Amino acid sequence: TIEFSGANYTRIDVFNAIINNVTGAPTSQTLNQSNETGNVSIFGAQVDVSSCSNLTSAGTTYNMTQSVSINGATCFNVTAANVTLDCAGFSVTGNNTTGTYGVYTNQFNTTVKNCIISNFQHGVYFNGATNGTIQNDTASTTYSNSIAIYIVGGADYNTIINSTGNSSSGYGIALSATSGNTITNSNGTSS
To answer: Residue 44 gets which letter from DSSP?
Structure first.
């Protein structure tokens, strides 16, 4: 039996055997038992998120349960592969500070969807992240020389779909030093 509690697990193995006693009647006996505790990444796990945080578990979908805001820092930093952030229409808000991002990733197969992101240097920032998806997002920024949706530095084979990027003094959507990316039904504006 393996019981999961969050990102931790407890493993309990109990081996039973049917043996014959001297009279030939079967009897049950426990032969071996071991206990083990540690960390595990559960592919396909669902985690509720109610504040800005590092998204560290591979193969996990993080579901926002409310709007979040942060001052002077990046809100969501993806540090594992195959991560999905589903904002469920909630907003992610910063305070226009240098070096801050609504969502930052350099990981394989990151999906950012259904987010309303505003007031960061870059709203969604894929820096070397490959094979990801930016879907149904609205990102806007008023920071000087900012980019609302930014794919850069070898961030190849990503898809931007049904998304909008708006920057008041930079680019709405920008791709730099990348290849194989697809933009579908999306708009980038500089106002």
So the answer is: T
Say if residues 103 and 83 touch (Cβ distance below 8 Å). no
- Of 42, 32, 33, 34, nearest in space to 9 by CA: 42
Alpha-carbon torsion, ordered 102, 103, 104, 108, to 10 deg = -170
Q: CA 60, CA 58: separation in Å to the nearest integer?
A: 6
Q: Which residues on adjacent β-strands are paired with residue 101?
A: 122
Q: Judge whether 105 and 122 are in contact, CB under 8 Å.
A: no
pLDDT of residue 35: 40
Give the closest residue to 85 by CA, choosing from 140, 128, 126, 39.
126
pLDDT tens per residue across span 156-166? 999 999 999 99
Tell me the C-alpha distance between 23 and 141, whole Å.
Answer: 82
Whole-model pTM: value is 0.78
Count of residues for the chain? 191
pLDDT digits (tens, 9 = 90+) for 33-56: 434 433 444 457 999 999 999 999
Strand partners for 99? none
How many other β-carbons are positioned within 10 Å of the β-carbon of residue 147? 27
